[in-house]
Each structure stands twice: as structure tokens, then as C-alpha cells.
Amino acid sequence: MATLAIIVINALVSFKGFNDSSFFERYKFGIAPIQAGQKDRMVTSGFLHVDITHLLFNMLTLYFFASVVIREFGPSKFLIIYLISLIAGSLLALFFHKDEPYYSAVGASGAVTGILYSAILLQPDMQLLLYFAIPIPAYVLGIGYLLYSIYGMKKRSDNIGHTAHFGGAVGGYAATLLFDSSLIFTSTLMVVLLAIPIIILLIMEKMGKI
């Protein structure tokens, strides 16, 4: 029910945005409006999507991984992790794009990436099918995706919100360890491996490489 509730809210808000451009413009993530005081955009933008394909991709990804988190923590903590990931994604986007007043973004990708990262931490032996045929460990996909996000943040050559994805993953990672600190001892290797992209980003930011 928690997953269904999130999907329904995303669908309702997104379809409202599809059909009402003024609504979309008011609630999307935008650096200048947020800096001017419209902090609510940091949350509302996570429920808006560009089109149906964007919405479906995010909601299908959420559907496949949410059950892992809910089984471990229950619906309440799952929702908290989702919201923490959403806000963490917005905060990182705000940090990296603070000098770009016209930067804008929408989508649940940050929150969904946080749930994905949480699920990987909780079930590190989970297998995924790459191209629906090639089985790979989920943690390989998670690490690879964040490394690609760093590349995208550096190149800035597409319209993908890489900073929100990365921030969401950090939020999901941190919230999961907060709710179950025993993972540090029972899944030490996985905790360290999943932290590698985060450490790389911090180092690159300190060196001014991104």
C-alpha cells in the first residue's frame, strides 16, 4: 500500500503537470525560485515528470525495489527513506547548481535511486538482469550507475538530473545505515563498496574537478 500510495501521488501530480503548464512551472525544481524562498519546490519537483515515459520508468523501478525495503523496515520507514532520498537529491542539485539560476529539474529519480541503493544494501546478493538477459549483482549496477552519474555531472552534456540521482542514492544509503547500523558489521564489504562513488565525488569536488 505504501508503494501504491507513492505511485498514485506521482501519477496524479504528474498528470496535473502534463495538462497545466502554470502548475508545472510553479512546482518544478528551479534554482532562482528556491533561492528566492520557494523551498517547497525541493519536494514538489520530485512528484512531477516530463512525460509518461519518464513517469513509467521511475515508477516501475520503484515497484521492483520497494518491496525489499518494506520487508526489512516496514512502510513507515520506507516512506521516510523515500522522502530523505528525494530531499537529499534536491539538496545536492542545489549545491552543485547554485550559481546557475536557470537550472531546473523534475522527477522522482532521486527518491527512487535512494530506494534502489537501500535495497542493494539490505540484499547485497540480489541479482538483476542487464538488458533482460544478462544476470549481474545489483551492487555492480548501483556502483556503476553512480560512477556514470559523476561522469554526467562533470560533462553536463545531457538533460538528465545526475546530481539529484547521486544525492538520492546518498540519502538512501545514509538513511538505511541510520535505521540498521548493524549492516556496518554484517555487510562491511558492501557498505564500503557502495561508499566508493560517494568518496570519489567528495574528493573531486574538493579538488575542483567537478
Describe this structure in words.
Strands 1-2 form a two-stranded antiparallel ribbon. The termini are far apart. It has helices at 2-19, 21-27, 31-35, 41-44, 52-73, 75-96, 109-122, 138-155, 162-179, 183-186, 188-206; strands at residues 29-30, 104-105, 127-130, 134-137. The protein is mostly helical. Helix content is 72%, strand content 6%. It contains 11 helices and 4 strands, in the order ααβααααβαββαααα.
Q: Can I get a quick summary?
A:
The chain is 72% helix and 6% strand. It is mostly helical and 210 residues long.
Structural class: mainly alpha
Task: Determine the fraction of residues in helical runs and give it as a percent range.
Answer: over 70%
Poorly predicted spans: none
Q: Quick check: average pLDDT?
A: 91
Number of strand elements: 4
Q: How much is the radius of gyration in Å?
A: 17 Å
Q: Characterize the biggest β-sheet.
A: 2 strands, antiparallel
The number of helices is 11
- How does the overall form come out from the CA principal axes? globular
Oligomer: single chain
Give the strand order of the largest sheet, numbering strands 1, 2, ... along the chain: 1-2
Helix and strand pattern: HHEHHHHEHEEHHHH
Fold topology:
Layout: H1 2-19, H2 21-27, E1 29-30, H3 31-35, H4 41-44, H5 52-73, H6 75-96, E2 104-105, H7 109-122, E3 127-130, E4 134-137, H8 138-155, H9 162-179, H10 183-186, H11 188-206
Antiparallel strand pairs: 1-2, 3-4
Keywords for this structure?
single chain, two-stranded antiparallel sheet, mainly alpha
